[in-house]
Amino acid sequence: MNSEQLIKEWFNAWEKGDFLHLPISDDFKHTSPFGTIHGKKEYLSLVKENKDKFLGYRFKIHDGIYDKNSACVRYTGIQGNFRLDVSEWYYIKNGVISEIVAYYHIGDIRKDRELSNT
């Protein structure tokens, strides 16, 4: 599977709400304006505890640059009336995503959008 197919699999899993089967490594690392999460187990635990903030999105992909072991995708995540414009770098090892670095402006976080367990 090439990087573009792998990233499509990532987005498809999110749109289906199937976060337990994301194509990520056990030592997965996710960095965003909220901080860095280390480990697949920790990442999935955070998602599970904050399903209302992570699930139910659809994604409009604007651009993508795909290389053998990395990719960069610019997209808009849409959840009801909430929209978030994002650029993400994906790093790939052994056929799965090992790291993501996400860039987006979060501004002031409304109480209903705050994450627990961070």
TrEMBL record:
Gene3D superfamilies: 3.10.450.50. Residues 8-99 form the SnoaL-like domain. This is Nuclear transport factor 2 family protein. It comes from Flagellimonas alvinocaridis. Transmembrane segments: none annotated.
